[in-house]
Amino acid sequence: VRNGDVSFWYRDLPVQERRAPLPGARTVDVAIVGGGFTGLWTAYYLKRADPTLEVAVIEREFAGFGASGRNGGWLSAEFAGSRERYARASGRAAVVGLIGAMRQTVDEVIAVARTEGIDADIAKDGVLFVARSPAQLKRLREGVDDDRTWGETEDDVRILGRDELATRVEIDGALAASYSPHCAAVQPAKLVRGLASAVERLGVQIHENTTATAIAPRTVRTDRGTVRATHVLRCLEGFTASIAGQRRAWLPMNSSMVVTEPLPEPVAARIGWRRREVFGDFAHAYMYAQRTADGRIALGGRGRPYRFGSRTDHNGRTQHATVESLTALLRTLFPAAAEVPIAHAWCGVLGVPRDWSTTVTYDRTTGLGAAGGYVGSGLAATNLAGRTLADLVSGTDSELTRLPWVGRRVRTWEPEPIRWLGVQAMYAMYRRADRDEYRSESSKTSPIARFANAISGR
Ligand SMILES: Cc1cc2nc3c(=O)[nH]c(=O)nc-3n(C[C@H](O)[C@H](O)[C@H](O)COP(=O)(O)OP(=O)(O)OC[C@H]3O[C@@H](n4cnc5c(N)ncnc54)[C@H](O)[C@@H]3O)c2cc1C
User: Fold this and answer.
1) Residues 84, 89, 92, CA angle at the centre, nearest 5°?
2) Distances 433 to 53, 81, 286, 291, 448 between C-alpha atoms, Å
3) What is the distance in A from the centroid of ligand 1 to the CA of 350?
4) Closest Cα to residue 114, out of 60, 195, 235?
5) Which pLDDT score is estimated for 203?
6) Amino acid 302: pLDDT
7) What 3-state DSSP class applies to 230?
8) Does residue 307 register a pLDDT over 90?
């Protein structure tokens, strides 16, 4: 099994040389720190609105090195954080606006990919969430009931019984699933690489191999010189803790994936899954999967969730035990694929704010802005956040700048070792709760999971 090398998604792409680093001190209008989807979408919309702006992206490795080139490829209308929490601060109408904006964003990303000639194996076949225990089934039903209170109709989300689900995909032990059409499967590295080229064509300079060490008003310090800019935007998601003074901001949560070799036809025939719906489950330590365009199954979930002191992985290499547990899970869900070898495993980090909700901020007086904290739902959200940051920078008052995630203030995580101990304890509790729920006939959510949710602020 190949492990790391950033991710499987890069394996089939032609090797690309890194772009030149920052040549030394520079002055620009907008400095964007981080060349993932957040930074690139922001640059894209800034330049499209005003081609005269000078925009520079500072990237430690290469554009798409982070979560953007490693994720599960769910281009989904979901967003991080509870709708109730946003509504308490901004009202229900604003949250309904965010739900609509996220749906439209899925189509916006697909449209830009088409306009810019980016072939990212995109298939908008929707998303399935599968329940495999009575407690998961109860959460599924409650979730759909709750969706209805937010105005979601049968066209937005509906429940498929066991038999109807089986006509789409044969998942062992599945009791039912929810289905929503507002999601596409994508090959994320193709998308992020294509976007980086599109941004360059618009005249943005991407400085790779350039590490930002400190961010201050009008200034980004890097190992290659200092960039002065009217606007400085921090787009570092799971790597935010690498910047001076940001150690306790967003927590870098690890997520790992495995991908099989292409399924042989007899195996594929038993599993079905002829369209490319992505699917996840209702476990507390949840999983996510997609059927790739070349006929593999890619599946992800939590490995070791967090490294002491907010450290990140090396080049996407994940732990052996994680590869084994994800492989076991894949074979539990798809016994027909038990003999299909695993081709590649990798991991990446996502950014988790203390309240598990996304934030887009910009301060006109300092010129400092940031977007992130998508938890596991950033592929579409980065586009909406990037468009929003672009409006905030240009001073355009729009529907986007009034979205409920704009301008939130979130407290920081606890210092170490409490942070490390807290995350370890939380995931131990989730694993235990999932085990208890699978063994039980009861449809009640495990009290251990409720307790873990309460203390983690999820
Ligand atoms: C394994 C995995 C699976 C996921 N699956 C999904 C999914 O299916 N659907 C979904 O919606 N979301 C998913 N996510 C989340 C999603 O990928 C992210 O929310 C999104 O890519 C975040 O983009 P970003 O640009 O904010 O961050 P990143 O893509 O992480 O970009 C940050 C960039 O900053 C660079 N950098 C780091 N430190 C410095 C520094 N000091 N100076 C300069 N540059 C620096 C990094 O190299 C990186 O390129 C997943 C994440 C992971 C890790």
Assistant:
1) 55
2) 52, 21, 12, 28, 6
3) 6
4) 195
5) 98
6) 78
7) strand
8) no
Compute the distance between CA of residue 100 and CA of residue 70 in angstroms, rounded to an integer.
27
User: Residue with structure tokens 């499987």?
Assistant: 8
Q: CA 435, CA 433: separation in Å to the nearest integer?
A: 5
Residue 123 is given by DSSP the state B
pTM summary value:
0.97
Res 72 pLDDT > 80: yes
Q: In a mutational test of the pocket of ligand 1, which residue from 22, 59, 105, 232 has the highest number of ligand atoms less than 8 Å from its CB?
A: 59
- Count of other CB atoms within 10 angstroms of residue 352: 27
DSSP collapsed to 3 states, 403-442: CCCECCCCCCCCCCCHHHHHHHHHHHHHHHHHHHHHHCCC
Tens of pLDDT, residues 235-259: 999 999 999 999 889 999 999 999 9
**What is the position in ligand 1's atom list of the atom closest to the CA of 381?**
11
**245 SS3 class:** coil
Dig out the tokens for 103 from the structure: 């749906």
Q: What is the pLDDT of residue 311?
A: 87
Mutation to probe ligand 1, out of 7, 58, 68, 105 (largest number of atoms < 8 A from CB): 68
- Region 209-216: what's the mean pLDDT? 97
Tokens linked to 303? 């490995």
Rounded to the nearest angstrom, the distance between the alpha carbon of 348 and the centre of ligand 1 is 8
In the chain, the amino acid numbered 448 is I
**Whose Cα sits closest to atom 4 in ligand 1?**
71
Euclidean distance between CA atoms 328 and 333, whole angstroms: 9
Task: Supply 311's token pair.
Answer: 């450290």
72 dihedral zone (left: phi>0; alpha: psi -120 to 50; beta): alpha
Q: How far apart are the first and last CA of the chain?
A: 34
Give residue-wise pLDDT tens across range 110-154.
999 999 999 999 999 999 999 999 999 999 999 999 999 999 999
